[in-house]
Amino acid sequence: MEAVKHTDEELMAQLCEGNREALADLVLRYQNDIFRFCLHYLREVERSKDLAQETFIRVYVARARFDGKRKFRPWVLCIARNLCLNDLKRKKTVVMESLEEYASTARSESGEVFRSAADSPDQHMMRSERHELLDRALATLDPESREIVVLRFFQRMQARDIAEIVDSTEGAVRTRLHRILKTLRGKYEFMKDDL
Q1: What radius of gyration, in Å, describes the C-alpha atoms of the chain?
Q2: Do 60 and 95 form a contact (C-beta atoms < 8 A)?
Q3: Which H or E element spans position 157?
Q4: Which CATH class is domain 120-195?
Q5: Which long-range contacts (CB under 8 A, 24 or more apart) does 184-193 make?
Q6: How far is it, in rounded angstroms, from Cα 90 to Cα 75?
Q7: According to CATH, what is the number of the domain 1-95?
Q8: Which of 8, 105, 109, 120 has the most CB atoms at less than 10 Å from its CB?
């Protein structure tokens, strides 16, 4: 007999009712995503592991405050983000992950990089150059703008979920993203054929 697959929100409701197994299910679903999300901010593997674990402790402690009408993913990412930002404030540095490092964490769980015919040395070199150009372009953005771009394009989040994480409105996030992309297009228009 197949196990019933509950939504994240159903698991949170079960957790509020005292079912600790629900938390274990959420940890299994989100531990890798939360770790990579923390790594994006901290750029330290061990510290990112610690804060990913702390995120789930906070989920458990704050379970009664979870609004079941909202999505779990933005809520948990907001918790992780706040932990990371607080950690960075203590260190007095705001460091964002380079795209190259992000790409290295975006591999299969085994760590294996999937190869294709397009992975010739020339293709690899061109891809590396594109990553470097993109990394430099993102480095020109202020931390808040870079965060919005990373959440939208690397975490693949919708504007309404980003708004919840950065404590803004969906319209404000859409407007800000539009302006950021317009600015980047203007700055790097001359490179469009190289990308």
Answers
A1: 19
A2: no
A3: none
A4: mainly alpha
A5: 184/137, 184/141, 187/137, 187/140, 188/133, 188/137, 191/133
A6: 23
A7: 1.10.1740.10
A8: 8
